[in-house]
Amino acid sequence: MNSLNRYAPHALGLLRIVTALIFIIHGTQKLFGFPELPPGGSLPAAFTLSWTAGVLEFVGGLLVLVGFQTRIVAFILSGEMAFAYWMAHAPKSFYPALNGGDAAILYCFVFLYLVFAGAGAFAIDKDSRG
């Protein structure tokens, strides 16, 4: 198992990149309607809570993607996802599988992990390169 440890920064970097790519899509959907919104959905008005979430998801996702100021940005995004879960999902049901909050919980804890672990490999941040 010790031989796998040398790949840990690379695995962390891949986790960061894939998470960011998927997260960015949530922001582009809110801000630009891409990918297509669900039937009956509409773009949020500027400076509303949903619009602010879209900006955080898009800009924060881009910063995490390239690994720039990863710890700080990940802290903010972890908080955003905790807020999103408790405000939008938890009131619907106690169970994440029923309230649609699975992704928010996972994002919250992946970003929280990045706060402590850093960006891993393939990042602009110098303190966390693998």
Q: Helices, strands, pairings?
A:
Layout: H1 2-5, H2 8-32, H3 49-66, H4 70-89, H5 96-99, H6 102-117
Helix pairs in contact: 2-3, 2-6, 3-4, 4-6
Can you give a write-up of this model?
- This protein has 130 residues and is mostly helical.
- The chain has one domain (2-123).
- Helices cover 67% and strands 0% of the residues.
- It contains 6 helices and no strands.
- α2 crosses α6 (102-117), α3 packs antiparallel against α4 and α4 packs antiparallel against α6.
- The two termini are 18 Å apart.
- It is a multi-pass membrane protein.
- It comes from Bosea minatitlanensis.
- InterPro entries: DoxX, DoxX-like_oxidoreductase.
- Belongs to the DoxX family.
**Largest sheet report:** none
**Distance N terminus to C terminus?**
18 Å
What value does the average pLDDT take?
Answer: 95
> Which residues form runs of ≥5 with pLDDT under 50?
none
**Total beta strands:** 0
From the alpha-carbon coordinates, what is the Rg to the nearest angstrom? 16 Å
The string of secondary-structure elements, in order, is HHHHHH
Shape: globular
